[in-house]
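Thread amino acids onto this structure.
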C-alpha cells in the first residue's frame, strides 16, 4: 500500500489541527453568544459580529506571510509562537472587562491561528506520500470540521450554565495538549532560507483586507457612500500590492500562480464555498434564538448533528478523491450545498428547529465531501515548488471569505431589522430569507463553475 505515515507526522498534524479546531470552536461558540453579548454590551448585530470579523481579518493579514515564514523559520519555532499567542488571547478574552478588550483578545488569537493554520497543510504536503494526500487532507479537515459541530452546543451549554467567559477558559487545556503534541511530532524537512518580508507589501495587505471587511461589515449601519470608500481604498491597496509584487525578487505572494487556470478556478470556488459556509453558520443559530425563541443551548443542539456528519464526510471525500479523482466528490458535494441553500431561501420565513436540523445536514454533508478535494486538487495543479504559495493563497482566501460571508449576511439581516425598527422575530426572518437567497445564488454559480472546469478522473491529478 506504499509508504507508511509515521507517528510523529500524525502527532504534528493533530497538534496543528487542534489549534485550528480551537479557533473554529471559539468562533462558532461565540456566534451562539451574539444575542447575549448584544444585551450585555448594548450593541447591534453588525457590531457584535466583529468578534468573528476581527479574528478572520488578522488571520487574513498573517496567512499571506505563511510561505515566507515557512522558508525563514523552523516549523517548530513557528508552531510554539502560534500556540503561545493563541493561549494569551484566550486568557485575555476570559478576563476581558469590556468589548474592546474582547476584540483585542480575538485579534491575538487570530495571530496564533494565522501562523498555525498553513502549517498543518504544509506538513501534509511535505511529509505524506502522494497517494495518501487526499485521505490525510480529509483527516486534517476532519479535525477542524468537528469544531463547527461542537461549537454551538459547547457554547450554548457553557454560556447558559457558567457564562460566555468560560468558553475561553475551557479551551486552555486543549491548547496545552496541542503544544505537547507539537513539541513531540513536528520535524524540520525543508531547508531554512531567510527571506526578508517586504514591509510595504504587508501594509498593502492590511489595508486591502481591513478596508474591504470594514466596508462590508457596516453596510447596514450608515450611508452607502461611507462604506464604499473603505472598500475602494482596499481595492486600491490590492492594485498597489500587485504592482509592488512584480518589482520584487521575493514577493510575499507570487501572483503569477494565478495564471494557472485550474488553480484559479479552485481558489475562486474555495472563496464562494467559504462565503456560503460562514454565512450559514451565522444565520442558523441566530434564527433559532431570535425567530424561534430558543436558547443558546438549543441553537447548538439543532446544528450539531449536521456538523458531526459534515466532519465525517471530509474523510469520505478524501477517500473518493484518492480513488476516483476530484470531480465526483466536488460536483456531488456542491450539489448538496446548493439544495440546502435553495431550500432555506424558500422556507426561511417559517422554519421549525427540526426542519433546520434536517436540512442543514444536507449542506454539511456536501461541504464535508468538497472542502478537502478543492484544496488537494487545486494544489495538485501547481508545481511542487509552488505548493507553499498555493497553500498561502487558499488559506488567505478561506479566512477572508469567511469574514466577508459573516459580514454580508449579518448586514442583510441588520438592514431588515432597521427597516422594521425592531430586532424581533419577523424582521429577522425576512432578513434571513434575503440572506439565504443571496447565498443560494452563490452556490449555483459555484456548481456551474466546477461542472464546467473540474476534470474527470486522472485528467487533473
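Threaded sequence (461 positions):
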Amino acid at each position: 500500500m506504499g509508504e507508511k505515515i509515521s507517528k510523529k507526522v500524525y502527532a504534528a498534524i493533530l497538534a496543528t489541527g487542534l489549534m485550528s479546531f480551537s479557533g473554529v470552536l471559539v468562533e462558532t461558540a461565540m456566534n451562539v453568544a451574539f444575542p447575549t453579548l448584544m444585551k450585555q454590551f448594548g450593541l447591534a448585530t453588525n457590531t457584535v459580529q466583529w468578534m468573528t470579523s476581527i479574528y478572520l481579518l488578522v488571520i487574513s493579514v498573517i496567512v499571506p506571510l505563511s510561505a515566507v515564514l515557512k522558508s525563514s523559520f523552523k516549523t517548530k519555532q513557528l508552531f510554539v509562537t502560534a500556540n503561545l499567542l493563541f493561549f494569551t488571547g484566550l486568557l485575555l478574552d476570559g478576563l476581558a472587562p469590556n468589548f474592546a478588550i474582547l476584540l483585542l483578545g480575538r485579534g491575538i488569537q487570530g495571530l496564533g491561528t494565522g501562523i498555525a493554520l498553513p502549517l498543518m497543510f504544509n506538513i501534509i504536503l511535505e511529509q505524506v506520500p502522494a497517494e495518501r494526500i487526499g485521505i490525510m487532507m480529509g483527516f486534517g479537515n476532519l479535525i477542524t470540521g468537528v469544531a463547527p459541530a461542537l461549537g454551538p452546543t459547547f457554547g450554548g451549554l457553557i454560556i447558559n450554565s457558567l457564562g460566555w467567559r468560560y468558553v475561553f477558559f475551557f479551551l486552555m487545556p486543549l491548547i496545552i495538549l496541542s503544544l505537547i503534541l507539537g513539541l513531540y511530532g513536528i520535524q524540520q524537512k525543508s531547508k531554512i532560507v531567510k527571506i526578508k518580508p517586504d514591509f510595504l507589501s504587508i501594509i498593502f495587505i492590511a489595508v486591502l483586507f481591513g478596508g474591504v471587511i470594514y466596508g462590508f461589515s457596516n453596510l447596514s449601519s450608515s450611508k452607502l457612500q461611507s462604506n464604499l470608500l473603505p472598500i475602494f481604498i482596499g481595492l486600491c491597496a490590492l492594485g498597489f500590492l500587485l504592482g509592488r509584487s512584480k518589482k520584487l525578487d521575493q514577493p510575499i505572494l507570487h501572483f503569477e500562480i494565478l495564471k494557472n487556470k485550474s488553480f484559479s478556478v479552485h481558489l475562486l470556488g474555495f472563496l464562494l464555498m467559504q462565503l456560503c459556509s460562514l454565512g450559514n453558520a451565522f444565520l442558523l443559530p441566530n434564527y433559532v434564538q431570535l425567530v424561534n425563541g430558543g436558547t443558546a443551548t438549543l441553537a447548538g443542539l439543532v446544528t450539531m448533528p449536521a456538523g458531526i456528519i459534515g466532519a465525517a464526510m471530509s474523510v469520505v471525500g478524501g477517500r473518493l478523491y484518492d480513488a476516483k479523482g476530484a470531480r465526483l466528490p466536488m460536483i456531488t458535494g456542491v450539489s448538496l450545498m446548493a439544495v440546502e441553500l435553495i431550500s432555506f431561501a424558500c422556507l426561511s420565513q417559517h422554519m421549525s428547529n427540526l426542519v433546520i436540523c434536517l436540512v442543514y445536514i444536507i449542506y454539511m454533508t456536501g461541504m464535508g465531501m468538497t472542502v478537502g478535494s478543492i484544496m488537494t486538487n487545486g494544489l495538485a495543479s501547481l508545481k511542487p515548488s509552488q505548493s507553499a504559495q498555493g497553500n498561502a493563497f487558499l488559506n488567505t482566501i478561506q479566512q477572508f471569505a469567511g469574514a466577508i460571508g459573516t459580514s454580508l449576511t449579518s448586514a442583510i439581516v441588520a438592514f431588515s431589522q432597521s427597516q422594521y425598527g425592531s430586532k424581533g422575530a419577523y424582521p429577522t426572518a425576512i432578513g434571513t430569507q434575503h440572506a439565504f437567497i443571496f447565498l443560494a445564488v452563490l452556490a449555483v454559480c459555484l456548481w456551474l463553475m466546477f461542472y464546467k472546469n473540474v476534470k474527470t478522473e486522472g485528467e487533473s491529478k
